[in-house]
Amino acid sequence: MIEPHGGRLVKRVADERLREEAGELEKVEIDRERALDVENIGLGIYSPLDGFMCSEDFESVLWERRLSNGLSWTIPIVLDLNLQEGESYALTHRGTIVGIMEVEEVYRFDRREYARCVFGTEDTEHPGVRRTMEMGEVLAGGRVWFVEFADKRFDDHFFPPEVTREIFRKWDYVVAFQTRNAPHVGHEYVQKSAMMAVEAYTGGSVGLFINPVIGRKKKGDFRDEAIIKAYQVLIENYYRRENTFLGIWKTEMRYAGPREAVLHAIVRQNFGATHFIVGRDHAGVGNFYGPYDAHEMLKEHDDLKIKPLFFKEFHFCERCGVISKSLCPHDAREFSGTYVRKCLLEGIECVFIRDEVLEAIAEMENPFVGEEGF
C-alpha cells in the first residue's frame, strides 16, 4: 500500500471528552468551505497537515510550494479569522460544532500577494482571485480536531482515507481520476486508457477511483447532484463494477491550475491511489494557464509517491471515435463544455455523451450551478 504524503495518515477526530468540552468553548462561525477544510484535516485527507497553517508554513507554501519541513504543498490551507492566540474555540457551521481549534498564531497577510503566488494573477475575473479578495486580512493558525460533518447530503458516497485504503488493498494499483464535471466519452476514454496502460506496464491488477470534487464551484459548472448521478449511470452501464470505485471528495474548487493539480495528487495519494490522471489544463479556468502547466509543475514535485499519468489533448472523430489528434488523419471535433450544456438545455442529441448519461442529467430540473456559484 502506498504511504500517505509525509509517511503518516493524520487522524484528528475528537473523542467524547473533547466533544463535551467543545460545548463549553467560545463558538466561532465559519463558512462551508472552511468547515470542509476542518473535515479534510481531521480525517487525514490533507495529511500531513494537522491544522490551519501558521505563518512559517504559509510563507513557505506561497514562495517555495513546500511546507517549512520541505514536503511538497502548493495551496495554503488557512482560516481568515482574527482570533486570540493561545485560546481554543469551537468552530461552528450553521450552528453545529464542526471542529475545535487551538490557536497558536494570528498573523496578517497580503491578499494581492497571495493571489499572485497561488493563481498567478490579480485579475478578479479569475474566480479564485475574486474569492481571495473577499477574505479577511488576518489569518489564524493552529491545530484542529474534527467533530461533525458540515454537509451530510452525499455521505453515502464519501469514504475517508482509512476506509478507501482498506478497499483498495484488493488491487495492486489504483488509478485516480479527478473531476468537477459530468462525464463525456472523452473522460471514459482517458480513464480506461490509463487503466490499460498501468496494467500493461505493471502486469498487476488495477482499480479505478473516480473521485469527484463536491463543493462550491463557479457559475455554469455541473451541480454536485448531476455529477454523482451521471457517474452512477455510466458505471452501471459501461464499467466493470469489480474494479471501479466512486467516492467523493468534499472541497471547493480553487481553479488554481498547476498548483491545484499538485494538491489534487497529494490528496489522492492520501486516499491510497498509486496513479493520478492529469489532463489538459487541469483545475484551470478561462485562459489563465497554459494547457500543460500542471504537467510541468508536477514533474518538479518528485517527493510525491503517487505517479502522475499525463494525457495531452484528445478529440472526437466521427470515424475513429475518441482519439489523440496526433493519431487521427480526419477533421476531429474538440470536446466542448459549451456544446454539452447547449445539448442538455435544448434537448438535442450529443455525440459526446452516452445516451443513458444524457437522459439522467436531462431529467434534472437544473443540472448547472447558478448565481450561488462564484
UniProtKB/TrEMBL annotation:
UniProt keyword Nucleotidyltransferase, yes or no: yes
Pathway assigned in UniProt: Sulfur metabolism; hydrogen sulfide biosynthesis; sulfite from sulfate: step 1/3
Alphabetical UniProt keywords: ATP-binding, Nucleotide-binding, Nucleotidyltransferase, Transferase
Nucleotidyltransferase as UniProt keyword: yes
Assigned EC number: 2.7.7.4
A GO molecular function held by the record: sulfate adenylyltransferase (ATP) activity
Top-level EC class as recorded in UniProt: transferase
Origin: domain of life: Archaea
Family annotation (Pfam families): ATP-sulfurylase, PUA_2
Gene Ontology biological process terms in this record: sulfate assimilation
InterPro entries assigned: ATP-Sase_PUA-like_dom, PUA-like_sf, Rossmann-like_a/b/a_fold, Sulfurylase_cat_dom, Sulphate_adenylyltransferase
Residue intervals passing through the bilayer: none
SUPFAM superfamilies: Nucleotidylyl transferase (SSF52374), PUA domain-like (SSF88697)
Coiled-coil features, chain-numbered ranges: none
Domain ATP-sulfurylase PUA-like as annotated: residue spans: 2-148
Domain Sulphate adenylyltransferase catalytic: 159-363
Family listed: Belongs to the sulfate adenylyltransferase family.
UniProt protein name: sulfate adenylyltransferase
Source organism: Geoglobus ahangari
Lineage of the species this protein comes from: Archaea, Methanobacteriati, Methanobacteriota, Archaeoglobi, Archaeoglobales
